[in-house]
Amino acid sequence: MAAAEAFSEIIDGDVYKYYADGRWQKSASGKFVAIINPTTRKTHFKVQACTQEEVNKVIETSKVAQKLWAKTPLWKRAELLHKAAAILKQHRDPIADCLVKEIAKPAKDAVTEVVRSGDLVSYCAEEGVRVLGEGKFLVSDSFPGNERTKYCLTSKIPLGVVLAIPPFNYPVNLAVSKIAPALIAGNSIVLKPPTQGAVAALHMVHCFHLAGFPKGLISCVTGKGSEIGDFLTMHPGVNCISFTGGDTGIAISKKAGMIPLQMELGGKDACIILEDADLDLAAANIIKGGFSYSGQRCTAVKVVLVMAAVADTLVEKVNSKVAKLTVGPPEDDCDITPVVTESSANFIEGLVMDAKQKGATFCQEYKREGNLIWPLLLDNIRPDMRIAWEEPFGPVLPVIRINSADEGIHHCNASNFGLQGCVFTRDINKAILISDAMETGTVQINSAPARGPDHFPFQGLKDSGIGSQGITNSINMMTKIKSTVINLPAPSYTMG
Predict the structure, then answer these.
(1) Residue of 54, 113, 127, 264 marked catalytic
(2) For 54-66, how does the pLDDT look when each residue is reduced to its tens digit (9 = 90+)?
């Protein structure tokens, strides 16, 4: 099936439809939301502006579909997920093209995201069969004061309707990281994609539609956050929220009430470099960690904390690599592409200008054209500069010179974020001690921070999030324990 033909039913004229009750629909609002191409800064796509009434209908349909889905055999759920994964990878090119146009992701990285998403769905199907196929059998006489008069059987049951809200930077991969665990666990899904990235997400949802999932089980509503955002997150029909994004998640957590939350809300990932570090390795990872996808990653290196004795050498090595980064449109597979919105570019520029005013050393000339910001390393950053603490989400990286490992740990732990961090040293004992002292959800030793592989636990401390992700953790989080206790008339001992 040709790509255009495969996705023909998801668009009406030049406006993409939303997905509910197993079919693609137009909103009764008659309105649309424009999606701006970060490179051209012009409207490239349009999506439906769904109403609160349509959201109500979607959630009611989801509740009905979930009850039937929960009775679907586990092997059948896994079979459908495998099918969706194959279709997703089959249509990687048109989905990747959306990522290029919507979020300026370099073309090769866009294809990688889609393929990785298919692999995640397949792994989730396999892991779900293992995790959910096992329960526990407990006996009462293991606790003091009891004889063996009770047998307890425990199993994992679905939560109900899961609301999934992924971010712009990985609108396909971070959507399926929520969708697949929810579905294998027996839940239904309501997806609210980000505006930038919504069309790629709609294409992804259509792959699940083509796989043959039951009507109403998967929904995707688009629209303005100001109109349906709070309405969705505070809806009484929602039983779980999985959100990835910025500090909006803190507001959601305060309003959501007594439902399970899974949130990843950004980071200020610190990279501590000791005197005995392999500086070539560290420099390569700083480039990869700090400038990949123009620094628009929660797990990007956000601040380099380097021992003063090796700082000059490290900065020189990083600068030589920065000079080799290509800058331009995502279609050309450039290393540095436009950041997602003009407001993002303005925010980044504000951090840069603050650092300049306060005396930071500019290793490169600051250069910006529209949303495109050239890569910039800022040396001799001090704690009174905003960029020492704030997350730029762009290709600008601060370097702070430190005199001890404790000084680096202190700066890391003084942040309100605690997602990931990394330490470079040849001494494994020092690495472990520093790792244990860093208040972050994950510490990478001799490598840049990274979310994957997708089955690894992924979590943040402090303002970086609630709960843990990773395929197994997400499956467990999207279920609850159900116990059945058999009361025996007399103590019973096997072979007693």
Answers:
(1) 264
(2) 999 999 999 999 9
